[in-house]
Specification:
The complex is a heterodimer. Chain A starts with a helix and ends in a 5-residue tail after the last strand. Chain A folds into three domains: 465 residues, no CATH class; 120 residues, Jelly Rolls, CATH 2.60.120; 123 residues, Sandwich (Jelly Rolls), CATH 2.60.120. By secondary structure, chain A is an alpha+beta fold. In chain A, strand 4 and strand 5 form a beta hairpin. Chain A has 17 helices and 18 strands. In chain A, strands 1, 2, 3, 4, 5, 6, 7, 8 and 9 form a nine-stranded antiparallel beta sheet that branches. In chain A, strands 10, 11, 12, 13, 14, 15, 16, 17 and 18 form a nine-stranded antiparallel beta sheet that branches. Helix content of chain A is 47%, strand content 17%. Chain B is of the alpha+beta class. Chain B has one domain: Invasion associated locus B (IalB) protein (Immunoglobulin-like, Sandwich), CATH 2.60.40.1880. Chain B has three helices and ten strands; from the N terminus they run αββββββββαββα. Chain B is globular. Chain B starts with a helix and ends with a helix. Classes of the chains: A alpha+beta, B alpha+beta. At the A-B interface, strand 6 of A face strand 5, strand 9 and strand 10 of B.
């Protein structure tokens, strides 16, 4: 059975790395082998309640909390309009859900891999096989050497820093730190010279990759391990810690010699400057000398402090259960906005503990910390009972590595990368099985009692999750908060500058609400050629308070201005909707890397205080070739203007008591589908005309009877001559309006 | 204590008062950095000038602005006789010939609270620039001394 476990573990490991990490294999597929591992484990151990330990309960409830948090946030997000924003800057519901999924999978992998680690190494002395783990990374390190010395872009998604076969350069660097102690375990505990040679070579390869990668966190970890080494050796051989021996002096000398030679000979050894670590350190020293501590702080530390502040603030705002998996990323710029500061690029919290507390709350962070701490506590409690030098080396080295890693977590949530999480889980599993094999017992639990207590904690956690997803601090409540700038709109991307003008790109449909400062509303719309169809154009519809104000066919790119009059709109909140029949994706068209689906660009909405002298909503003046209106003054050319859906004009200048308008429609299908024209004064319909033919109609308005100075002419539909193939005129036409001069 | 609070409440708020500058002319700049200026020519006639910043090429070339003060009747500059413009950034017109008591158009500015000017960009955009006339009476009186 143990051999099958071993084989299963190796297959799982290979699938995990070389499909998930290097080929961008969808992480979701990996649930299948993970499930198999879990079924094996539970079948063998979990149902035997008397064998359960603290670690099992922690793992199970941590997974349950992650799942509960995921479900609540997922359903809360799904209830919102898919086009609405969940951050103040650019990101909509789909973006938030994608991060929720991604972080949930990563957080759930922690307990699953931890269990897999325990399962994989369970069996007599199987924990010692962990020292072979670095060999699994040799191909990745080989690629890293090629990347560092020859071609950095080889199998490299970012192309800037070497990453081996991993997709994340930082994760690759951190993995290197975790692999060195494992090689040391192999180097020390195996007596076979060939095996020693293998582990020595791999250790050398790892160190070379550390130099090539140039990650300071890795160097910090190795240096910390160097300091720990003395204590490890003392513990293994049961020596007094503070006795100065010749071996200790030699060891300190070797460390100083190693790092000193890197600094002194670095440039000479590395003409091609591929040993990035040396240059990174030298640059930092140069910056410190040239520009002072302040410069180095701003360049290297300030960004971390900013993120830490955001995470701390998020934690304090939702202390029980945080903001859900990926909550830090979803809300980091909301916090910046509340504080009146500029947005920063999307990033993790740059600190594992703060990342966990902002995503999973203080309860979730404590649970996660307990998982990390459990093997160390286990080792401190039962380490003395471990017999045999090799077992003691194994335990001391791995436990020290884990402790150093708890310190390195201050520089980032490194276990978000699956390769790091995998090695760390393997180390934890190996420690626990080493101690189990040595006869240690890690607090067998009273199952039902602790199940009851943990269920109580879970209810409390669930309350926090509900509050932050559906409740009074949830997504809907947040979008109604006074500080939320986008609560009245969806489908509009953040404001940006196009040719120096402030514009907003729209999605296919948009809604926004504005407080009207007058009765005349103005739009600036820019159409781009990419979603204009040659024969059908681009159709844009504008709606104000459920009234279609205008519909337009854009056959040519460029700006267009539209103004509409709505009586009694001033000082009210108006709802403005836009819709386009087609969007375009610049990234898909190869224009740039912008992956949004874009409709039109809209300028800021304006409200005019003065009705323009020529009215609003009319196209330019036209002059008729002949004069088809019998009553029209002779020798005066017929001048008229077409409207779109609606147009308004001021009639106060008319001196007579009555005003005369002439109206004409030319829709080619109006004999089958009549066109209805309303003439409104204020909100009151003064005249209703139904057009079934294209003759001019005379409309008399008695000015004394109308209750507004401004008259609005509305049609129920427009038509487009180019679209109908009547002419090349690309305008959407409603009704032609002619007013004899002198009125 | 209540006296101190009352004093604080009644303390004039400087930001609410329009900042008129009076030298050879009286002018005020609004938030859009446009300027409304009054000045007196050698023959005593009084001119009003609107200066747009930045200049918009051709903005006054074909259509002259409209303006309205509070809810008074609309004024269309194309109906005015003495209108001058450089077509791109400023337009000025005679508002009072300086003879006799102040004419109605000038009085509107003196007594008004808000002046709205509407102008038309060559690409079809309609824009408005708004000036507060708070303390305009003092500034114009100073100019007319």
């Amino acid at each position: 059975m143990n051999d099958w476990k071993m084989l299963g573990g190796i297959i799982f490991t290979v699938i995990f790395f070389y499909f998930c990490q290097t080929m961008n294999f969808p992480v979701a597929w990996l649930w299948l082998p993970v499930l198999v591992v879990m079924v094996f484990y539970f079948q063998e151990g979990f149902w035997k309640i008397e064998t359960l330990q603290w670690i099992h309960l922690l793992l199970a409830f941590y997974a349950i909390w992650v799942l509960l948090s995921f479900l609540c946030h997922y359903f809360a997000l799904s209830m919102l309009n898919p086009n609405s924003y969940i951050t103040v800057h650019r990101n909509q519901i789909g973006w938030g859900i994608s991060f929720l999924f991604e972080f949930t999978q990563r957080y759930l992998f922690a307990p699953v891999l931890f269990l897999s680690g325990i399962y994989f190494f369970s069996g007599r002395n199987r924990y010692r096989h962990i020292c072979w783990l670095p060999l699994l990374f040799v191909p990745s390190m080989g690629v890293a050497v090629y990347q560092g010395l020859i071609d950095k872009s080889f199998l490299n998604p970012n192309g800037l820093e070497i990453c081996g076969l991993s997709r994340d350069a930082s994760a690759f660097g951190i993995s290197l730190f975790l692999l060195i102690p494992l090689c040391l375990v192999g180097l020390i505990t195996f007596s076979n010279p060939w095996r020693k040679a293998i582990f020595g070579s791999v250790a050398g390869l790892i160190l070379f990759c550390v130099l090539l990668r140039g990650q300071r966190t890795t160097l910090l970890g190795i240096m910390a391990f160097g300091i720990f080494w003395h204590f490890i050796r003392c513990w293994v051989y049961r020596l007094p810690v503070f006795r100065i021996s010749s071996k200790l002096i030699l060891y300190i000398f070797l460390i100083i010699f190693f790092f000193g030679s890197i600094f002194v000979l670095g440039d000479r050894l590395d003409k091609k400057k591929s040993l990035y670590l040396i240059h990174e350190i030298k640059n930092n020293i140069y910056d410190l000398n040239a520009y002072g501590v302040g410069f180095l702080y701003r360049r290297k530390i300030e960004a971390r402090i900013i993120k830490a502040r955001i995470a701390a603030k998020l934690t304090l705002l939702s202390p029980i259960s945080g903001w859900g998996p990926g909550g830090f990323i979803r809300n980091m710029n909301n916090i910046r906005f509340i504080e009146g500061k500029k947005p920063i690029p999307i990033h993790n919290a740059a600190n594992h503990y703060l990342q966990m507390s902002s995503d999973m709350g203080i309860m979730g962070a404590l649970m996660n910390f307990s998982l990390l701490l459990a093997p160390i506590i286990y080792a401190f409690k039962n380490g003395k009972s471990v017999q045999g030098i090799n077992n003691r080396w194994h335990l001391a080295i791995l436990c020290s590595t884990l402790m150093i890693f708890l310190f390195l977590f201050l520089s980032g949530p490194h276990t978000l990368s699956l390769d790091v999480l995998f090695i760390l889980s393997a180390i934890s599993g190996s420690i626990l099985t080493d101690l189990n094999g040595a006869g240690g017992s890690f607090a067998k639990i009273h199952f039902w009692k602790w199940l009851f207590i943990f269920s109580g904690f879970t209810l409390f956690f669930l309350y926090g999750v509900y509050d932050n997803s559906f409740g009074k601090n949830g997504y809907i409540a947040r979008q109604k908060a006074p500080w939320w700038p986008l609560k009245n709109q969806y489908g509009l991307y953040p404001e940006e500058k196009l040719n120096g003008n402030r514009m907003q790109w729209t999605a296919k449909e948009t809604v926004q609400r504005r407080k009207a400062t007058s009765n005349i509303i103005g739009f600036k719309i820019i159409a781009f050629p990419y979603n204009i169809e040659r024969d059908k154009g681009l159709v844009v519809e504008l709606q104000v308070n459920d009234t279609i104000a205008g519909d337009y066919h854009f056959f040519h790119p460029g700006p267009r201005y539209m103004y509409y009059y709505f009586p009694k709109m001033a000082k009210t909140e108006v709802e403005i909707r836009t819709a386009v029949n087609r969007t375009f994706n610049p990234s898909e068209l190869g224009i740039n890397r912008d992956n949004r689906n874009l409709g039109i660009a809209m300028g800021p909405i304006r409200f005019l205080r003065i009705m323009p002298a020529e009215g609003v909503g009319f196209y330019d003046w036209e002059t008729g070739n002949s004069n088809p209106i019998a009553e029209w003054p002779r020798h005066v050319p017929l001048r008229f203007r077409w409207t779109n859906i609606q147009a308004s004009l001021n009639l106060t200048d008319h001196t007579d008591e009555t005003a005369t308008l002439y109206l004409m429609c030319a829709h080619p299908d109006m004999d089958k589908k009549p066109v209805v024209v309303h003439v409104l004064s204020g909100n009151t319909i003064s005249v209703k005309e139904v057009f079934k033919d294209n003759g001019w109609r005379r409309i008399n308005l008695t000015l004394k009877e109308i209750d507004s100075e401004i008259v609005t002419i509305r049609v129920n539909r427009t038509w487009n001559p180019k679209f109908f193939g009547v002419s090349g005129d690309t305008r959407n036409l409603g009704v032609a309006v002619a007013i004899p001069e002198g009125q | 204590m209540s006296g101190v609070l009352l004093l604080l409440l009644l303390w004039p708020c400087p930001s609410a008062v329009a900042e008129w500058r009076v030298f050879k002319y009286a002018d005020i700049e609004n938030g859009d950095q446009d300027t409304l200026r009054f000045y007196r020519k050698w023959n005593e006639s009084i001119f009003v000038m609107i200066i747009l910043k930045p200049a918009i090429p051709g903005v006054f070339a074909n259509r002259l602005p409209l303006y309205r003060i509070d809810s008074n009747p609309l004024h269309d500059l194309k109906l005015y006789g003495k209108v001058r413009t450089n077509k791109d950034s400023w337009v000025k017109w005679e508002i009072d010939n300086g003879q006799g008591p102040a004419k109605e158009n000038l009085t509107e500015f003196i007594k008004g609270k808000i002046a709205v000017f509407q102008y038309y960009k060559p690409d079809g955009e309609i824009c408005e620039t708004v000036f507060s006339l708070d303390k305009a009476d003092e500034a114009i009186s100073e100019l007319l001394k």
